[in-house]
Amino acid sequence: MISFEEALSIITSDVLVKDTERVDFRESLHRVLAEDVHSDVDMPPFDKAAMDGYACRGEDLGGEMEVLEVIAAGDVPIRKIKSGTCTKIMTGAMIPEGADTVIMVEQTRRTGEGKVVFTGDKTRPNIAKKGEDVRTGDLVWRKGMPIQPQHIAILSAVGHTTPLVAKQPRVGVLSTGDELVEPALFPEEGKIRNSNGFQLAAQVSNAHCIPNYMGIVPDDETATEKAIRKALEENDVVILSGGVSAGDFDFVPKIMRKNGVEILFQKVAVKPGRPTVFGRTKDTYVFGLPGNPVSSFINFEVFVKPLLMAMMGAGHKPLELTLQMGAGFQRKKADRLEFIPVNIDTEGKVTPVSYHGSAHIHAICLADGLMRIPKGVHELKKGAVTYVRPV
Ligand code: AMP
Ligand code: MG
Fold this sequence. Notes:
Layout: E1 2-3, H1 4-12, E2 20-22, E3 37-38, E4 48-49, E5 53-56, E6 65-71, E7 85-89, E8 101-104, E9 108-112, E10 115-118, E11 127-128, E12 139-141, H2 149-157, E13 164-166, E14 170-176, E15 180-181, E16 192-193, H3 196-206, E17 210-217, H4 221-234, E18 237-241, H5 252-258, E19 262-265, E20 268-271, E21 277-280, E22 285-289, H6 293-311, E23 321-325, E24 329-330, E25 337-344, E26 349-352, H7 361-365, E27 369-373, E28 379-380, E29 385-390
Parallel strand pairs: 1-20, 6-7, 14-17, 14-18, 15-16, 18-22, 20-25, 23-26
Antiparallel strand pairs: 2-13, 3-12, 4-11, 5-7, 5-8, 6-10, 9-10, 19-21, 21-22, 23-29, 24-28, 25-26, 25-27, 27-29
Helix pairs in contact: 1-6, 3-6, 4-5
The structure holds adenosine monophosphate (AMP) and magnesium ion.
Adenosine monophosphate is lined by residues 175, 177, 179-180, 192, 194-197, 241-245, 247, 250, 290-293, 359.
């Protein structure tokens, strides 16, 4: 049995990184950037007014000023500011030559036709200087980073309309088990609905990869062999759930081998997920996850997701919060690293979700995160430091 850290390092070393493609930036949300992006402009591109008001010389604020013209955003000023003059200016408009200050319209009073005075005590310059945010040539977003809505703004601003991104892995999901029926059916005696097949497909979507739900596979060697063969042909990654533990019909690892999958590990000191199987062929990765939905959910997050991210060239460091226990936690055995579903209250205090074990899917519906309890730790007292990754 290998450690959790060893398993993760096997999964994420020598990863087959997907090819890249150019996409329209409007379709690039959540894709992983495969190139550095630099700015082709200064931001702001000129000294610009940060307020609606009057552009003038700071030294003239004591007296009456003559208004030379009105400059809207997008206009180019014509008149130069000289002593005793100003121009009315709108937020975002170019500062006229000679001006060093924009006084807010709220701090002015008209004193006659085309004349204003400053009524405040003092003012800031209220000018955004050319290039103060970004200079031409600056790196604005990096290779290996996902594109979020705010990055769509920066791609727009620098005119980078066809970013190079990683192609998305296609991930086949197979649910093994004679007891499973599709969710739209009412389960007959002895049967249950297939819940983790669709959970896994949704987790694949959440990781911004392409899910390929491939149905329920009966606990039959020939059927499993056929299903795995087809899945290996059609996908970059295959996730099977169920059939990996010690039951009479748990032959997933054996059939993987029969299909030419090199098994890289088959037991990990982690809870849940001890029987997790991981292997690969020349060009496809295969996971066999335990069938219980809580286990399959957690094991996807901690094992499968890092691989999917690495295949897209993304450095996946799951956000782990250092928080405090809001209640005590104890466990009898501490021979494995454990992840358990928890709630985080508004003060950041962590309480384990009460659940009956890894079949209790309803319990994790209410969880805010997964708490990591290191190997060897038997007890966490109320107030103790703990580590939680949000889900
Ligand atoms: P297994 O890993 O095949 O031994 O299954 C462990 C437990 O998880 C059993 O109680 C199964 O009925 C249950 N299980 C397996 N696959 C699924 C699934 N796709 N959806 C819901 N429960 C499942
Ligand atoms: Mg089974």
